[in-house]
Design brief:
Number of strands: 5
Shape: globular
Largest sheet: 5 strands, antiparallel
Helix content: 10-25%
Distance between the termini: 24 Å
Number of domains: 1
Amino acid sequence: MITIYYESIDRCHKRKTFNNLAEAQEYAQEWVGKHPTISSTFGYAVSDDGIGKITCNGCGIFELFPGSY
């Protein structure tokens, strides 16, 4: 089970749970893009415009954004 949390600077909060990685990747990438800025230290990804942030449980942040190393 993978849970994705989305948060924006205008205080929009969303949470969605997925049974597989492919669906979780698609959802996360819809919100912050395919190659966001990733903080490996704190485990989150931020959209290039700085508006949205993704965190997750059940997988690593790099697993949601393959190729964003």
